[in-house]
Every structure is written in C-alpha cells, then in structure tokens.
Design brief:
alpha/beta, Rossmann fold, 6-stranded mixed beta sheet, 4-stranded parallel beta sheet, 15 helices
Amino acid sequence: MVNRLLSLFFSIFICISALAQVQLKKVSSTSPIGVFDSGTGGLTVLEAMLTMDAFNNETGMPGADGKLDFEKEYYQYLADQANMPYGNYAAENKTDLLKEHILKNMHFFLQQHYAVMQEKELITLAKSSVKIIVIACNTATAYALPDIKQMVKKEGYNIPVIGVIDAGSKAALQYQKDKGIGTIGVFATAGTVASNGYPRRLHAMAEKFGFKELSVISQGGVGLAESIDRDWSFYVDTLTKARKEYKGPSLKNMLKIDTSIMNIYHFNQSYNQLLCEYDDQGKCLDVQLNDPSNYVRYHLVTLLEKMIAQNYTKPMNTLILGCTHYPYMKDTIAHVLNELYNYQLNGNYRYRKYLAKHVELIDPALETAKDAYVAMREQKLSNQTAEKEDQFFITIPNTALHEIQLQPDGWFTYQYKYGRKAGENKSYVQFVPFDKKNISEATYNRFKIVLPHVYEKIMSNKL
C-alpha cells in the first residue's frame, strides 16, 4: 500500500514538473542580449563583449580563434539614469526601494513592447524580450542578483542572469596567485561597499585559489560615478562657485575633506574643478569637488590613509574597479596611484609601505563577458543567423506623475529620489531610446574615445 502511494505521489510529481516545463516561455537564440546598469558605466561591459576573442567559436573552448566571440549577437542596453546613483540608496536606508527599481528594469527586459509619450499621447512600440541578462552594475549585483534570478523564473523564463562581482573577484584572485600576495583594494560605490559583496565573494572563492587568508580593503567612491554621469548633486561643469545642493566630499558634508593633507590630495583647481565658498574677507569656508579626477584623488588618498590608520601589513597590489563607471577613469587612477607611491613628506615616502609600485587595476568587464559567453553556450543560446538592430534605452522622469520633483537639469531632486517609499506601485520613470537630449554631447564624446565600438553602434541608431 505504501509503495503504491509512493508511486502515485511520484507520478503526480512528474506530471507537475512536466507541466512546469511546458509553461516555461521559449527563448530564441536570435533574441538580443540584455545589458543593464544604473547609468552608462555598463557600456564598458558591452565594449568588452563587442571586442572579445577569448574562445574558439566552433568548440566553445577557451582560446582565441581570430573571430569575435559575440560577432553575430545584437544587444538591448538599459541605463536607469533617472534613479541613479544606486550607490546612495544604502546610505539612505532605501535598499528595498533600490530592489524595486531593479526588478522593474528586469521586467522591461522581459517585455515585448514599451510605451512612450509622444506629443501628449501614449504610444506603444515593439521590442524583443532578451535571452540573457548581464547585470553590468556592481550595486545591483550586490543587492538584487538572487531576487532577479527568482523573478525571471517566476515570469516563466529559463534564461541566464550574469553579475559582475564574481567576475571581478576571480580576476583579482588570479592576479594574486600569479604575481604574489598583497592587499586587494575594492574601489566601488558606497552601496556596493556597504553590501560587503566583494569581500564576501573574495573570501568565499579564496580556498579555490589556494589562499587561507586574504587582506582586503574597501573604499566607497561617493560622487565618482555620479560625476562621470553628470549627476547635478555632485558635478556641474558650468559652475563657478560653491552651492548648498552639493552632496559630495567637502569641509561641511558628512564626507570630510581633510585640510591637513590638502597637499597630498593635490586637487586640480583649474577651470572650476575645485570650488570654494568664500566669506566677506575672501576666506574659503568650504571646498567642493567639481570634476571626476578630483573625486579619484580624494578617494584614493582616503583609502591609503585608512590603511595607515588600520595598520595594514601587506601593500595594495590589486585594485578592483568595482563600479562599471570607474574604467572610464582608469588612466587617471593609475596616474594618481603612481603619484602617491612617489609622494614624500619630510624626506620619507608616506605610502610605500602600503602601496605596491605596480597596482593591477581589475576591470571586471572582460571576465563578465566571458561568463556570459559560457552561459549562452551551455544553454545553446548563441546566435548563428540573425542580424537585427541594437537598442539603447534610458529611463527618464515620468512627468505624467504630478508629484515628482525635478532639479533645474530635468532629473529628480536628491530629496525626491531617495525620499520615495517602496511598495507604492508607481511608474516613476519612462523607458525611452538614447537621444541627444537625455545624454549630453560631452558623454557621447567620451564614448567615442573610450568605447569606440559601442559609440559606433549607438550612432548607427540615428540619434
């Protein structure tokens, strides 16, 4: 009797499992690859995908074959510019709201249409659903990767979801194994640092690389990604004086500029890249950063000063660029690190005990592209035939929602952005294609120099 019941239970289980499999939506290998970031930083991952030759395309095995690994693929990129910077949600105790934004963006990827407002009329336009999602955002990966995977399955899709943190951690540990043990620096957004995502993954993977212990230090780069994407609260290139709306490091804000080491920061003061608030006698009462390079300087000095204060014994020889915006500043970061390595105070090198002569800058983009390639091969999702048009989307404030509060530049105010509450089921943003209004000319010029293959694809969309 028991055996018959077990047999019946097993048959029912098989039927339910089979039904669940039937209900999964079929994914076509000719569908686009979805690449997501809070802003335009994730385009560095897309550039890596467009230029990578790390595998044999016939066998799928590692090893270049002279052919681009993703040469027949096309892409759907989404930048959640309206809700960025993601790194500040943790500091404002709004990680639940952050997850909500991220999952709404994932739902957009899975849809086959989207709506835009044209001349006060809502127009529905067609788009493809994606066959793989690459989360080219460290903060989104740190806070929501399991939730994204669960949501995708719940909506009936059996598609890979790839995050950047594992990729960056593997690359850093491999460098340590090949070149010698030192301190691994994690330079990321404040949100990614608060999540402890990188140290947790580094320690979890350490044994596989033969390490029993690791030396890791993290620095939250408040304002750097924001200034790269021209967030009004952190950087305005037309400013000539300090302002009360500024949210970055200063003499008055929570993140303090230490006036005792101003010579070490060595801030660039030309072209209003460093702003002062003066009193009636011309004395500088406050200092504000107003250029991405000065944010780099502030945070790298802060990181090394932290190593001194915490008595690190191994010099930093590896620095993970734990935000996809930071590779835009790779040359600046390398230059400042070299400058600090050679900095002398009273005839003594201040940082040589804590900083290797060469610091390997780990850009997780290439490793993320490799993970995506392997996942697509495993699920037979590689495109062999179709040539379709790439699509580049960005979120903008939904002005039909009358409660929204906007800055002079047309984006959400800081107070409104982080003052919203999760669970209110409101459409805060619209999804629209890249154009010359929602992305500045200066940003496109940066793409042209740093990301030429991405730039070519964006321009082919006839902006």
